[in-house]
Fold this sequence. Notes:
Layout: E1 3-5, H1 22-39, H2 41-45, H3 48-75, H4 81-112, H5 127-142, H6 145-151, H7 159-163, H8 166-182, H9 188-208, H10 212-227, H11 236-260, H12 265-271, H13 273-282, H14 289-298, H15 303-316, H16 319-335, H17 342-358, H18 365-376, H19 386-389, H20 392-417, H21 423-430, E2 435-437, E3 442-443
Antiparallel strand pairs: 1-2, 2-3
Amino acid sequence: MAAHLEPAPATPVRPKKFYQNLYVQVLVAIALGIALGHFWPDKGAALKPLGDGFIKLVRMIIAPVIFLTVTTGIAGMSDMKKVGRVAGKAMIYFLCFSTLALIVGLIVANVVQPGAGLHIDPSTINANDAKEAQAYAVKAHNASIVTFLLNIIPDTLAGAFVSGDILQVLFISVLFGLSLALIGERGEPVLAFLQSLTAPIFKLVSILMKAAPLGAFGAMAFTIGRYGIGSLANLALLVALFYLTAAIFVLVVLGAVARYNGFSILALIRYIKEEILLVIGTSSSEAALPALMEKMEAAGCKRSVVGLVIPTGYSFNLDGTNIYMTLAALFIAQAMDIHLPLTEQVLLLGVAMISSKGAAGITGAGFITLAATLMVVPSVPVAGMALILGIDRFMSECRAITNFIGNAVATIVVARWEGELDTNRLQAALSGATVTSEDGEPLPLAV
Length: 447
């Protein structure tokens, strides 16, 4: 969806009242959800359908958003080699920074050693928790990298849209966009129709986002009601360490990348703060995917880059998940007094790099990829995952946020590498200028 900078209005525009801003509404909803879940846990746990319902609403629209964005972006390219260059540069970026995230988690776990001193006997692990952990191991086994690659190809053309699988939709979109571009003028009527269809689809996104506070309220009430704030106490160090490590990765590592590429990571976070709060409230980065694609295009990244980088990044650029995997794996080993030599830690890192791709797109992917990793390192029993089963839900928000911010940074960087970034528009958007869509709707920016 094309966007343009709106010239300053002749007459002053009355700003929204603070309670009309989506991020304020989501923030209040999260606070109310925490309070309800804490004081009335049964009622809070019963509100799970609110969060699930909102996520389903957003997932309903993800497939058409990706299809329209990618197809029209590629079809509008005059140089087909550019598609391959954008995809190639994106994958190089993903590989480098996903590996760096794994290394950061490995270093922090070795230096701080959050599991040291617990001296847990594997035989004392709760039987039910061990059984649930083993179930995740089965899912991980089924999510092999070969199976994952084969599953990118849908059974039918419409099957990708029926299943809602992001990579399958992306696969179809790229092929269809290339087909439109290759047939030249004969494809222009179809391209014009798809470009016109983009406006109402993104308008639908903005309508669905109005339900975000309700979804965040239900999801947060369920989380606190089901697991309780007190359940964090005995493993608070691991949770705090994970959040701190992720924050350092975002502010220092991604901050340095942002500065090198001419923008501020803090300004970018302010720009997408509404989407970040949505991720926190729902514990799902998918809930904010359509809005992120819209904002990145509004901030000066070409549609062809946005359409390729963001959907692909949701499966291949998992910085938060990678930090979590190395921290959690070493925590389990330390808690059980299992010494992992450097060679096994390097093996762990390599397996985690592969397994994080093989289980991408599966519900509970962070925990599943951890199971897949531990299955290849026999020194650490998979049943040890039961130690962190109770707090995994509290760490999923941080995984999702870190992945989300990482994909926003990746989009801008790849767009700049490819010469497809309007730097003036980017700086204007990050500084809080009003940016509008084609239908004149103002997009919410930093304040």
